[in-house]
Amino acid sequence: EPFVADEYIERLVWRTPGGGSRGGPEAFDPKRLLEEFVNHIQELQIMDERIQRKVEKLEQQCQKEAKEFAKKVQELQKSNQVAFQHFQELDEHISYVATKVCHLGDQLEGVNTPRQRAVEAQKLMKYFNEFLDGELKSDVFTNSEKIKEAADIIQKLHLIAQELPFDRQVHFSRANLDICCSKYHDLECQLIQEFTSAQRRGEISRMREVAAVLLHFKGYSHCVDVYIKQCQEGAYLRSDIFEDAAILCHRVNKQVGDIFSNPETVLAKLIQNVFEIKLQSFVKDQLEECRKSDAEQYLKNLYDLYTQTTNLSSKLMEFNLGTDKQTFLSKLIKSIFISYLENYIEVETGYLKSRSAMILQRYYDSKNHQKRSIGTGGIQDLKERIRQRTNLPLGPSIDTHGETFLSQEVVVNLLQETKQAFERCHRLSDPSDLPRNAFRIFTILVEFLCIEHIDYALETGLAGIPSSDSRNANLYFLDVVQQANTIFHLFDKQFNDHLMPLISSSPKLSECLQKKKEIIEQMEMKLDTGIDTLNCMIGQMKHILAAEQKKTDFKPEDENNVLIQYTNACVKVCAYVRKQVEKIKNSMDGKNVDTVLMELGVRFHRLIYEHLQQYSYSCMGGMLAICDVAEYRKCAKDFKISLVLQLFDTLHALCNLLVVAPDNLKQVCSGEQLANLDKNILHSFVQLRADYRSARLARHFS
């Protein structure tokens, strides 16, 4: 533990007799304590001197050993320098000897190489002599186990024979003929047969040896063909030929590098063989049988087969097939499908048109509806507007019996067919033709969905709008608007999800957007025309008011016995208005809702305003009119249009003129809500009071 002086002295004091505190078991004796301290200090001094002598002795010993160690290190350094010099001398000597040896080796090689060539040439001349004599005696030609050596010799003799002047010397021509046509061919066939047998036995090492020998023969390509043919034996056992081909290529890729010196060329040739023979035959069988008889199945098969082929190509991209494997595989795919892709878009558009027409016709047949030609533009639009706005008898409206002639099932079917067409177009079209082909499909969708279905339903709905004087007219056009709105949202979603990715970077984008804009504007124009159904709504309200409102409602015979809060006509009108407001909100969205509700609210206000001015009001009748207007105002709040609510607030304030005391008329007329109104309007309401002709009232108002 670390030395602490205070603690050391405390322990010394407690051990000394008489060193305790006063009142303890032993009295405190300072003399004895001082004596003990003096003695202990002397002991510590003696101990310090003894330790100091020991330290000095150790220091002297350490200095002595350090000198000895330094001397020893110097001796070792000298020895190391001597050894390094000896090593340098030895290295120089070794370099000198190595140079001599290399020079000698070069000289020996210079002598030995011509000698080896001469020996080899002598052997070839000997073998060539045997061919000249017409009798092969050498063991290398008669022993079947030495086929590798024989092949090497025959190949070299074949090269020599190619350069012999056999046209001039008869003897050479015979030897050349024997080598080229007989032994060369026989040995080549024998090697190929040996390779085939080794492949069947699965002897990779033997196949590698034979392939290496055949590499310099003309029949090497035939050896590769045999290998490719045998690899495919029993390879196509599953129902999925594309999966079988992928497994085959994967297996061969692992093996071909151990057999051939150019594995990428052999593997590429195998893949080419698979594509051009096996896959092309399979694709032809699948497509030709339905090419003319069933366009739908033909397009489906073409899309599936092309997709499976490109997927197989993607799997093969991981193999080493040479420098430009992407172009190589693309050419193979194109060679299979070129005859089908050339006229793909014609088949696609023809099928899509016929399929879309069939879907629409089947729907109209289910409704027992004969699709009629409804005029558009020019005179027909003018007649329709005149009929709806003036109620002139320009011909009866078409009774649709509540049918909108719009079907979400039909729309989903059309969009699904078009979606599949877009997917096929994306996969099967050449990149340069893709935007143009996608635009053609889009125009077909516009024709059958937007024009033949939605536009026809809008035209039929417009023709079916009843005149404003019709009683109990059903306003089915709003149902048409609601369904058309929903359908167009689906159309717009497909436009963004499936068409835009295909044309986003091409000039066709602006054409598609322009065509879509024209369709929207055309439909909005028809919807604007159809908004004249508001005339029918106002007409229905007029019929309700005419049938239900009585003159005695606002001028009761018994002023003291009026029990109702508002009139029956008011109840029915408000119920009808609320129903129509809800229908409009469900049929439209966005700003269209506010626009239509504002127009309806303004017309509704005008109707009630004109209706109230048809009656004379007693005091109690005026109170009842105020209650009716309050109910109308409550109904107007459902519109959630500030202008409409403001109009009814003003109308409610005007109705107060029917009940206010004559003395307060001027004060009420100068109020906040009535101060800005024309005085003639105020006067017209005051004139509706039953007591208006009294001199007192006329005097106060004037």
Automatic annotation (TrEMBL):
Domain of life: Eukaryota
Single GO biological process annotation from the record: Golgi to plasma membrane transport
Residue stretches making up the Exocyst complex component Sec10-like alpha-helical bundle domain: 149-701
Cited Pfam families: Sec10_HB (PF07393), Sec10_N (PF20667)
Swiss-Prot/TrEMBL keywords: Coiled coil, Exocytosis, Transport
Gene Ontology CC: exocyst
Keyword Transmembrane in annotation: no
Coiled-coil regions listed in the entry: 41-79
InterPro entries cross-referenced by the UniProt entry: Sec10-like, Sec10_HB, Sec10_N
Domain called Exocyst complex component Sec10 N-terminal: residue spans: 30-138
Homology family: Belongs to the SEC10 family.
PANTHER family the record matches: EXOCYST COMPLEX COMPONENT 5 (PTHR12100:SF0), SEC10 (PTHR12100)
Name by which UniProt lists this protein: Exocyst complex component 5
Species whose genome carries this gene: Crocuta crocuta (Spotted hyena)
Gene: Exoc5
